[in-house]
Amino acid sequence: MTVDIIMPQMGESVAEGTILKWLVNEGDYVEKEQPLVEISTDKIDTEIPSPSAGIIKKILYKEGAVLAVQTVIAQIEEGEIKAQAGTVKKEQEEKERIEISETAAIVGEREMHEKRYSPLVKKLAKEYNVSLTEIKGSGEFGRVTKKDIMEYISSKREITASKEKIVKEAERETLIPLHPKRKITAERMALSRQTAALVTTVFEVDMTPVTKYRELNREAMKREGIHLTYLPFIAFAVVQALKEHVALNSSWTDNGILQKNYINLGIAVALEDGLVVPVIKDADKKDMFQLAREIQEIAVNARSKKLKPDDVRGGTFTITNYGVNGSLFGTPLILQPQSAILGVGAVVKRPVILGDADAIAVRSMVYLSLSFDHRVMDGAHADAFLHKVKDILETWGESLYEQKKPNPPGGYGGVW
Question: What are its cofactors (predicted)?
């Protein structure tokens, strides 16, 4: 029986994917769940596993191909050819054994050649970064002498000088090919700016109460396997504010504003080749510590390319934390079809004036930037939402939002 391998849909707004690298060849035997191919979209880079054991019958598209989702990209033959698959597997194992033997032989041959070189010649080769296998020896039995290596170095210098001159003239500019994710991200972000009536509002928030809470509970959280950063506190505050200000958890449609009665919180994660936004489903049903654990898990999975298609689907609101790079504030672009995105700047200590007392104190401050779609809401709605987030964070130790829990057996003092 022939099994089709298809280009999966990695998110509701994703219409295509790019084949980055085939991990198998036609005729190879593969086990069930064995990775077959690396693919990329603007949402995620991942490996597609084999749905069953069998032989790769046909690879239909080459690396670099950009294909619509649900396109058949390869076929596996299973069922009646299981015996044949076993034979192919044995052939592959034999091929690997031969390759290992050949490699060992090559190494042995290199070791023999090494014995032909004197310590002085080896020292000169290392000093001038020269491969001795490229030099024809004039000594007895073809041994490479000091004279041979110095003449070789002299000739190489003349060639290198000429090449360097050409390179300096030709490589004043470098064209860097676009990674598929960067290309698709560029298209999506340009489309977002063209689609939404984008406005950004910025609030300043005193994070000192949260800072004190983190310091009090940092070690206890480590024992629970949770790295207690500022982000879980902000995520929790955002979720509480979204419950009251539902316009920010909505989408624009031609038929009206589509209000989401659930909160799926997207957390942007920076990768080497761009951003990916995994989603915490039903974030409104989770406390701050559950959010902290899930934020930690999705970041690890994103960077190790272990995210699944469902992990990047269904986001209703997104947080992007550019403060980890030292940025104070920015104007993030909305991920369509969402209507808002919150940017988190760096938390920095600086002197501020406290209330009406005109007293100056050093506080931990952060800028929160909210970009929103003016078609869906007005500035007053956006500011009311940010005000709620600010109030929760600035009164953390005075409110029920600190999510108090009973100490475990042999407790560690304070609150979670």
Answer: (R)-lipoate
Please report, as a single letter, which amino acid is at residue 323. G
User: Nearest to residue 398, comparing CAs of 203, 205, 204, 208?
Assistant: 208
CATH class entry, domain 116-175 = few secondary structures
DSSP string, 21-72: EESS-TT-EE-TT-EEEEEE-SS-EEEEEPSSSEEEEEE-S-TT-EEETT-E
Residue 373 is among the residues annotated as catalytic for this protein? no
- Active-site position among 273, 310, 374, 387: 374
Whether 347 and 369 have beta carbons less than 8 Å apart is answered as no
- Among residues 7, 20, 333, which one has the least CA distance to residue 177? 20
CATH fold for the domain made of 2-83: OB fold (Dihydrolipoamide Acetyltransferase, E2P) (2.40.50)
Q: Each residue of 241-273: pLDDT tens digit?
A: 999 999 999 999 999 999 999 999 999 998 877
Which residue ranges make up each domain of the chain? 2-83, 116-175, 181-402
Bin 264: left if φ > 0, else alpha if -120 < ψ < 50, else beta.
beta
HSE of 92 in the Cβ direction (CA atoms, 13 Å)? 15
- The sheet with strand 54-59 has its strands ordered as 2-6, 72-77, 54-59, 29-30
CATH dotted code for 181-402? 3.30.559.10
294 contacts 286 by C-beta, under 8 angstroms: yes
Q: 148: part of which helix (H) or strand (E)?
A: helix 146-170
* Catalytic-residue membership of 378: yes
CB 323, CB 345: distance < 8 Å = yes
Sequence-separated (6 or more) residues with CB below 8 Å from residue 113:
132, 133
Topology agreement, domain 2-83 and domain 181-402: no
pLDDT, position 59: 94
CA 288 to each of CA 102, 284, 388, 396: distance values in angstroms, whole numbers, following the listed order: 57, 10, 16, 12
- Single out the catalytic residue among 378, 381, 383, 387: 378
Residue 105 DSSP symbol: H
Q: What phi-psi label fits residue 129: left (phi over 0), alpha (psi between -120 and 50 degrees) or beta? A: left
